[in-house]
Amino acid sequence: xxxxxxxxxxxxxxxxxxxxxxxxxxxxxxxxxxxxxxxxxxxxxxxxxxxxxxxxxxxxxxxxxxxxxxxxxxxxxxxxxxxxxxxxxxxxxxxxxxxxxxxxxxxxxxxxxxxxxxxxxxxxxxxxxxxxxxxxxxxxxxxxxxxxxxxxxxxxxxxxxxxxxxxxxxxxxxxxxxxxxxxxxxxxxxxxxxxxxxxxxxxxxxxxxxxxxxxxxxxxxxxxxxxxxxxxxxxxxxxxxxxxxxxxxxxxxxxxxxxxxxxxxxx
DNA sequence: ATGGTGGCTGGGCCA
Length: 267
What we know:
Elements: E1 2-8, H1 12-25, E2 30-34, H2 45-49, E3 54-58, E4 66-70, E5 74-79, E6 91-98, E7 101-109, H3 119-138, E8 144-150, H4 174-185, E9 189-190, H5 191-195, E10 204-205, E11 217-218, E12 221-225, H6 227-231, E13 233-238, H7 241-244, E14 254-258
Parallel strand pairs: 1-2, 7-8
Antiparallel strand pairs: 1-14, 2-4, 3-4, 5-6, 6-7, 8-12, 9-12, 10-11, 13-14
Helix pairs in contact: 3-4
The protein binds one DNA strand of 15 nucleotides through loops.
């Protein structure tokens, strides 16, 4: 069994103790992190390595920043840390060797987009185009590809609270949903939705307006799987206990469980 | 209610 998680921590330095208890209690093998909000130098390597994880970090000062932590050996790192032609730390990819087969793992932090009529929204759509291109290029390269992250898009009505299922709302506009659908159509699977077809669950709740208390959230954090990974998918869950803690991230971790005792080679 | 809270910082910007 292989447990793989994604979590937007909203500052790794603020959340380091919660991260350590989460990966220990949920027995996480690999985790993709977003919004670490620190430089590579500021990253708390020591505390995480003590738990047996290798750290691959692509940070920047004060904002954004992605990382991948793995209990299994990382055989290639710093792959394609820039899928968009700018300096923002929003994408990181590596290759992990796991009991004789390779996993290509990516951590992605899609721009929020601010509002539908903003320049930031155009950038969000452009980022999605670049992400699509990268994931399209990866398709079939390794059998097992896992792309976890904060996509800042809820795929369908069931993924947002009732007040929010509106074209004007950022994260639910048809153009950005279309970009996510295009990635799914290219062959990747939404691990949570395929294992929980009817569940109205969220992965993010605004800090403001009592959103958590009223359960007014959105499911915007996703684990996308290549077909050979999807075949091995046992379950996927959102650990919203992490959102209920004191000083939480505004996001909850998403976890998928893969069966690993399978010959992954198609040849 | 054009607000609200939280994290970067060290005054706003971003989410």
